[in-house]
Amino acid sequence: MGLYHRLDLRSRITLAAGNVCLFTGVMVALLATDFARRHGAIFNGLVLGLPSLAIALNFHAMRSAGCGNKGQV
After folding, report:
1. Half-sphere exposure (Cβ direction) of 57: Cα atoms closer than 13 Å
2. pLDDT tens-digit map of 17-68
3. Quick check: pTM over 0.85?
4. Residue 25: which of 56, 65, 63, 60 has the closest Cα?
5. On the CB side of 19, how many CA atoms lie within 13 Å of its CA?
6. How many Cβ atoms from other residues are within 10 Å of residue 1's Cβ?
7. Domain ranges of the chain
């Protein structure tokens, strides 16, 4: 079984939210060129903020699920 099947419901939801933030951040960076010209500060905030939030959410999901070796070698 994969890692996704070992996660509890709360961790799955957090992981899904992180992946949505990552996808949205990448799509904003690729498709919102007209918006970037008009609203540069908001565009930069979205392009930098959404992937950062995705990293934090994915890290939190893995950390709260308890996946890993827990310090055992």
Report:
1. 19
2. 999 999 999 999 999 989 899 999 999 999 999 999 999 999 998 888 775 5
3. no
4. 56
5. 8
6. 5
7. 8-65
